[in-house]
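README, section 4: Worked example with a bound small molecule

Sections 1 through 3 covered apo chains. Here we extend the same pipeline to holo records, where the ligand is supplied as SMILES alongside the sequence. The molecule in this example is flavin-adenine dinucleotide. Nothing else about the input changes; the structure line simply encodes the ligand pose together with the chain.
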Amino acid sequence: MFRRVAIIGGGAAGATLLSELLERPVSQPLHLDWYTGGGTPGRGIAYGTRSERHLLNVRAASMGMFASRPNGFLEHMQKRDPRISGTDFLPRCRYGEYLEAETASALARARSNGHDVRVVPYEVDAMVPENDGVTLFQGETTTRVEAAVLALGTLPPRPLSQVDEATLAGGRYVTRPWSLLAEAKPDTQAYHVAVIGLGLTAVDVIVELAALWPNARFTGISRHGLLPEVHQANAALPFEDSEELIEAMRDAPDIRTWMHLLREAIGHTDDWRRVIDCLRPRTQELWQLLPLADRSRFLRHARWAWERSRHRLPQQVAQAIAALEQENRLQRVSAHLHGVTLGERGPQLRILPKGQGKERTLDADLVVQCVGLDNDIRRTQHPLLQQMVTNGHIKPDPFGLGMQATPDGRVLHDGSAWPRLFAIGSMLRGSLWESTAMPEIRQQARQLADHLLSD
Ligand SMILES: Cc1cc2nc3c(=O)[nH]c(=O)nc-3n(C[C@H](O)[C@H](O)[C@H](O)COP(=O)(O)OP(=O)(O)OC[C@H]3O[C@@H](n4cnc5c(N)ncnc54)[C@H](O)[C@@H]3O)c2cc1C
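The generated complex, written as structure tokens:
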């Protein structure tokens, strides 16, 4: 059992692990250091939004913080309003409040049980893992712990290579959409906003800015010009042949066969979502069976289609987007982005629309980059991860999906696992693929807490 543990990361994953550790009966008091990196502990990026327009993309019944109580969030919400149903997609800010409330009660319990928990609202600057402990550096302070867990979420976005320095310096090209939305104020100017990418983050940006800026119009640019797929109003029935499908996929772990099997299964259902959803509890296991060459093939050819079908929009959000399109406030363009430079009137985008041989330019008042979550620690400027990669303490996943680790979250270096350094959440995508959402994170938190406190 490790009595002195550091958790690095103040989002939902760090909060869930902390709460799991403090839930368990232990023979001796724990000493936990929780480095949150600033912000409201527990909320992180996803649940830090204060907008009611930003909805969860997972139904309320599946968003409980604890693996032992998957209904926890629903019960919390139904105490306020019994009409709320488990199939509802609720605002993410409500979920942030729930995380905060659960974390506060875990911390209060810890005090009454004699545990010593330090919540440190700063980033860890550097770490040195060794076989008998981990040393952390934060500002002028050095701390030695028995074990440490990296719960760092996804990486700060990097600007696309097509954007020139002058545009970046001009302040009208935004790489951190969440900071923009947190500070955006109502405005009646007729802005033209170009959004690069058309995934869930782009949708959040468009829906929010369209409400705050009623005269703004938007151009959404992506390779295919398509939005994420949409959830059905009610949860789909389980796919009746899921066991046979998974068994067949297990027997032939190569991406071409899997695509064939999936197409066949989808052909036998009334709703393709049932097939995609039946894979979710088994995705991690299937991913581990897939040879590296096939992972690479999947990432090159099928990743985009998978993400679009797996991470879907709630119907209310899809309707808000459709209304903007009908009012001609949103135009979607399928195009390659060739460059963004600073013109006389602001950022200018050069794009090559699909099927056309000729480049087109687009003037915008503001450009917001929403190109998906980044886990590539080979290229990151995140100071802690940079330091750990440079010093060989961690090894990047070969496909840019976080760090090399065992499926149960032990961080690898030179092919072997550190006995006292662990990771949870998005940084484990390379070994698990499905590792960014709460249903997976709470499972990892439970297993890790069991491991850390086992005798
Ligand atoms: C916009 C958005 C919507 C989403 N919606 C859903 C949803 O509806 N349902 C769902 O299940 N999942 C959703 N997700 C997935 C989401 O990633 C997880 O649910 C969860 O929020 C991940 O939490 P995390 O703690 O791993 O990461 P984060 O929330 O990113 O937290 C990482 C934390 O690490 C801290 N940190 C970074 N570096 C350091 C350092 N050096 N020292 C100390 N602290 C550091 C950061 O400050 C931050 O607090 C969504 C994600 C996004 C981005």
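What to look for in the output: Residues 8-14, 35-37, 39, 44-46, 56-58, 123-124, 151-154, 201, 384, 425-426, 436-438 surround flavin-adenine dinucleotide (CB under 6 Å). The two ends are 5 Å apart (CA to CA).

Section 5 describes how to batch many such records.
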